[in-house]
Amino acid sequence: VNFSASLPSRRVSVHSEAVLSVASSVFPASFSWDFGDLSPRVNSSTPNTTARHKYGVPGRYQAQVSLSAGHQEIVAQGNVSVELPPRLELHCPELIVANQSLEEAVSLINWGGVGVTVEWSIRKDGREIAR
Questions:
Q1: DSSP secondary structure code for residue 41 in this structure
Q2: I need a labelling partner for 127 at 20 to 30 A (CA). Which of 15, 52, 56, 91 fits?
Q3: How far is the C-alpha of 97 from the C-alpha of 111, rounded, in Å?
Q4: Residue 12, strand partner residues
């Protein structure tokens, strides 16, 4: 039996489970998952091609899965990037005077967030006047 497999890279939060999924050109008889964080291997012979794992520490891990079919075994690898969720702090006064610069009055501090997008708007009497 000749076959191939791939394990795509993932990016997850340290507070959520990583769902790793392998794609194979044939249906393997068994799987052996190594999550790259020194946790015990997870072996399975079920038809499920996914594994769930929760990483305890942020970092980059090289996950791999060994697949067996017939008398052949292959290994697929992928990277898992585990990040802390962003912690945002908004610093602003309760009241901003007309003609005062917003850049000086309002600041947003990002503690460890990666790929964070901020949407803001200014409202007056319930109507949006700036975005």
A1: P
A2: 91
A3: 28
A4: 82
> For 3-42, how does the pLDDT look when each residue is reduced to its tens digit (9 = 90+)?
788 888 888 888 788 999 888 888 878 889 999 999 999 9
In this structure, what token pair is assigned to residue 71? 């008398």
Quick one: tokens of 92?
């602003």
How many CA atoms, within 13 angstroms, populate the side-chain half-sphere of residue 109?
5
Q: CB under 8 Å to 60, separation ≥6 — which residues?
A: 79, 80, 81, 82
Token readout for 26 is 């044939």
Tally of residues, the chain: 131
> What's the one-letter identity of residue 16?
S
Chain centroid to CA 17: 9
